[in-house]
Specification:
single chain, mainly alpha, three-stranded antiparallel sheet, 5 helices, about 50% helix
Length: about 90
C-alpha cells in the first residue's frame, strides 16, 4: 500500500491533467476512439496498459492512462521513428 505522501503525489498528478481517458488518448494521437480500442486488443501492440480500468455491467469500460506513457509510446512508435518522430 502506498504511503499517504505517495498517494497525495499520485492524486496531484491526476488533478494536473496528466491522466487521459480514451477520448483524450484519441485526441492526442489524432485517431478515432475505435482506432485506440483496436490498439488495445492487438496482441502485438506495444501500447501502454491502462493505469485504471473499471468495467460496468451494461456500459463501456472506463480506462485511464498516464499522458507521459502515451506520449512515450507515440515517440517510439515505428512509423514515427521512420518519419523522424513527427508530431
Amino acid at each position: 500500500m502506498a504511503s499517504r505522501s505517495d498517494a497525495a503525489k499520485q492524486l496531484q498528478r491526476l488533478l494536473d491533467r496528466e491522466v487521459l481517458d480514451i477520448h483524450g488518448v484519441a485526441e492526442l494521437l489524432g485517431m478515432k476512439r475505435s482506432s485506440v480500442n483496436t490498439l488495445l486488443v492487438r496482441d502485438d501492440s506495444s501500447f501502454p496498459e491502462p493505469i485504471f480500468e473499471l468495467r460496468g455491467k451494461n456500459r463501456h469500460p472506463l480506462r485511464l492512462w498516464w499522458r507521459e506513457d502515451v506520449e512515450a509510446w507515440l515517440r517510439n512508435r515505428p512509423s514515427n521513428r521512420m518519419n523522424g518522430g513527427a508530431r
